[in-house]
Structures are given as structure tokens and as C-alpha cells.
Amino acid sequence: MKRFMVLLMATFIIGGCSAQEVTSEKSEYKSVTSDDNKERNFKDVTSEEAIDMLTDPEINILDVRSPEGFSEGHIPNAESIPLKELEASYSTLDKTKTYLIVCKAGKTSETASTLLAENGFENIYNLTGGMDRWTGEVIN
Questions:
Q1: Domain extent at residue 32
Q2: Residues 75-105: pLDDT tens digits?
Q3: What pLDDT sits at residue 92?
Q4: Residues 49, 84: one domain?
Q5: Phi, psi of 116 (to 5 degrees)
Q6: Would you say residue 62 has pLDDT above 50?
Q7: Coil/strand/helix, residue 99
Q8: C-alpha pair distances (Å), 108 with each of 5, 65, 117
Q9: Are residues 15 and 79 in the same domain?
């Protein structure tokens, strides 16, 4: 009986410690997620919202796909700056202008939007879904 009580106590102690560790891991994960969301200094826009934006001649469209992707079809007046060349272009881009960032599916443009925002660009819009979801005019 004494042996049973010792085993029972050991089980509760070990179980209690592991439950506490899992709880602390979950709270750390939540804080990382909330920090990431706070640092996001650009806005996602749908194809329809982007089409409305393009009525403003001051909007600059940056297509961050490869040159091959760009040549397959792009938004009129878009400038091709592949993601791997974006950092080298910071000095030639005006940080106060408004930019619509475009790629094929929306992930590369999200990365580019993050980089631009982190480097002081003020008005960044990411086309969600990229050219795959674009419903406006396309130039081949």
C-alpha cells in the first residue's frame, strides 16, 4: 500500500510539472504571434481594391516576380523589380510614394512589402492572391 501511494504521488508530481511546461510554451507562442502582427506596416488589398487604387496616377506598381513571370503577363504600368533585386533598388525608389506590390500568388509580394516597410517606405499595399487572383487588365 505504501508503495502504491509513492507511485501515485510521483505520477501527480511528474504530470503537474509537464503540464506547466506546455502552458508556458503556449504563452510564449502567443506573444511571438502578437509581436509579428504589430510589426506589419503595410496593407493587404484585394484585386477589386487594387483596381480602384489604380485610378490614381500616383500609384506605383512593383512586380516582384522573375523577369519570366513578368513577361507572361503583368498589370499595365507595372515596373519589374524581382525580389532578389529589391534591396539594391531602395535608393532609386521614393519612400514617400504609394506602392502596390504584386507577385504570382501573394507570398513573395508579402515578403517584399515587409522589406519595404522595414526600410522606411510609408505607403505599401500588397495584392493578396497576386496575379493568380488579379481580375483587371493584363499586358503580355
A1: 1-38
A2: 999 999 999 999 999 999 999 999 999 999 9
A3: 96
A4: yes
A5: -65, -45
A6: yes
A7: strand
A8: 59, 8, 14
A9: no
Domain annotation covers residue 80: yes
Q: Report pLDDT digits (tens) over 12-59.
A: 455 444 444 433 333 232 222 334 444 568 999 999 999 999 999 999
CB neighbours (10 Å) of residue 120? 10
Give the CATH number for residue 121. Answer: 3.40.250.10
The answer on 76 and 57 residing in a single domain is yes
How many whole angstroms separate alpha carbon 71 and alpha carbon 11?
Answer: 65
Grid cell at residue 88: 539594391
Number of C-alpha atoms within 13 angstroms, CB side, residue 25?
6
Find cell 500588397 and name the residue: 126
State pTM to two decimals. Answer: 0.71
Q: Which three cell numbers stand for residue 74?
A: 503583368
